[in-house]
Amino acid sequence: MRIRPVLLLSLVAVLFGCQTSTLPNPNDPDDVGPLSADNMKDQLGSISDSLQIHVWHQEITDKEYRELMQQAAEGLLKGYTADRIEPAKAWKYAEVLVTAHRWPDAKVALEIAVEWAKRNHNEDRRVNDSLHLARVLSELGQVEEAIKLARTVFDVRPVDGAPILYGVLDEIVPAGRGKGKDLELARLVEDAIAITQRVQVDPSSQSGQLFLRYRPERIRRGWFTAALLYDHSKRPDLADKARANAHAIGRGYVPEQRVKV
């Protein structure tokens, strides 16, 4: 049974209200003020887990889930200011800011996160945070800049490339399509597929096994996504080729790809 709309706010209030802090009282030394990056991220994860149960039971829709998560993230950010950001934890603040759709603030946090990752030679964070930042730039209408940024992580070693196609398909393309750069997005997808084809994982690990299990389907979806983007760009020739590649997945065919770095 679906939860009635009037109960949605009360649902998130129950999940969220008992977990958050309030604005600090400067006259109270025991008042710790706004939540830390770790607390915000952890509590947002707990709220997500709780709401997902209602999605699985078909009590709320995916759209309602996203709306409730946005409201919860806004509440968790009460008292947040950019000057509180610890560079090493900027990506955690950014995760909550993205969920709240606070794109300009998320851009600032992710720029800090990317710079920290570069300085500390942390490839995992450089790749993930650059892709997240590219999504935010796309949300802000800066799709050309987003594509250029995404390509800066296409130089990764095969062992570090697993997040790339996920970030392109699930974040950058949905945020950037229909904004005048669909042809460039399609080419970005193609080159992300090429990286995914050569990714190396530990097949004995759970994460490695999951990656290998779902890689063919992820690549297939990538080709279909590229085809749609080519269609929107009035390139039926490239769209047909991309669809042919999608249909060939699973029959041992691996199309040749170039990678633009």
Explain briefly what this protein structure is.
With 261 residues, the chain is mostly helical. It is built from eleven helices and no strands.
Domain unit count: 2
Tell me the number of strands.
0
Shape label: globular
Low-confidence stretches: 18-32, 253-261
Q: Helix/strand-derived class?
A: mainly alpha
Total number of helices: 11
Roughly how many Å apart are the termini? 50 Å
Explain this structure to me?
This protein is an all-alpha fold and 261 residues long. The chain folds into two domains: 1-87; 153-261, no CATH class. Helices cover 64% and strands 0% of the residues. It has eleven helices and no strands. Helix 4 (90-99) runs antiparallel to helix 5 (103-119), helix 6 (123-139) runs antiparallel to helix 7 (143-151) and helix 10 (206-232) runs antiparallel to helix 11. The longest helix has 27 residues, at 206-232. The radius of gyration is 20 Å and the shape is globular.
Topology:
Elements (H helix, E strand, L loop, with lengths): L7 H10 L19 H20 L5 H15 L13 H10 L3 H17 L3 H17 L3 H9 L11 H14 L5 H16 L8 H27 L3 H13 L13
Give descriptors for this structure:
0% strand; mainly alpha; single chain; 11 helices; 64% helix; 261 residues; globular; disordered C terminus; 2 domains
